[in-house]
Amino acid sequence: MEADVRPAPLPLSFTDGVFPAGCPSRILLDHVTSKWGVLILIALSEGAQRWSELRRRTEGISEKMLAQTLKTLERDGLVSREAQPVIPPRVDYSLTGKGYELSALLVPLVAWAFDNAEEIINGKA
Amino acid sequence: MEADVRPAPLPLSFTDGVFPAGCPSRILLDHVTSKWGVLILIALSEGAQRWSELRRRTEGISEKMLAQTLKTLERDGLVSREAQPVIPPRVDYSLTGKGYELSALLVPLVAWAFDNAEEIINGKA
DNA sequence: CAGCATCCACGATGATACTG
DNA sequence: CAGTATCATCGTGGATGCTG
């Protein structure tokens, strides 16, 4: 009874191996699709946010993981960090141009997951 | 010198926490964005394939991970498994309707990663 | 060919405490 | 507030060997 529609193959030209193991794409993909990476990128797609704001919104993340994930994304040039030399400290994070491009692709995916999760993970009602 | 363009916020309505921890979306997202999940889904987006074919194309995957990932995706109703009672055994995997929907969103993301990986991960030439 | 069962290692992640 | 340092652990994932 499973739906099994399989329209025309998608246009893809890089899928032959699916990628070479250890190629840059794999690394980038791992950063981006990491457990917390997706969530942070999505959160930031709504605009710049402070550390504490991100921590609160990304429910369940530890400080360590937040710091680590942000650093990775920053090194990848997807997120930009802006620290203000005030006391108490204030640091804002935002998407770079690249990060924004990426989030534009990530958002529909996450939205789909959000819409279908209930049915898929729980009852198939 | 980093590009720092930040156009209008993307339309998103579910991002307030970013999701509740432990909600179905998180689980589904973890399955889909898992290290091998993405790659398998992408590989299958080009059409049904046999176990051995998937194993070969998804370079670097172990049998254990292939089996495990396929099972998860099958339980989630994204991949369908068709075993033929012949000797030697032949099993084909393909995307379900849901799986195809998903892969349609995944492909642009992966393509983007593929196109930008070199620059992002390696030299920023 | 297409798996499953086991054992094992290490890295990812969490909890806690401390600091500029 | 925005982190960093340290430690304990938990699970992911690899290697191997066996089977229908």
Mean pLDDT of chain A: 89
Fraction of residues in H or I helices of chain A: 40-55%
> What can be said about the biggest beta sheet of chain A?
3 strands, antiparallel
Structural class of chain A: mainly alpha
Major sheet: arrangement of strands of chain A:
1-3-2
* CA distance, first residue to last residue of chain A: 13 Å
How many domains would you count in the coordinates of chain A? 1
Itemize the secondary structure elements and their pairings.
The structure is a homodimer of 125-residue chains.
Chain A: H1 24-32, H2 35-44, E1 49-50, H3 51-57, H4 63-75, E2 79-84, E3 90-95, H5 97-121
Antiparallel strand pairs in A: 1-3, 2-3
Chain A binds a DNA duplex (20 and 20 nucleotides) through helix 3 and helix 4.
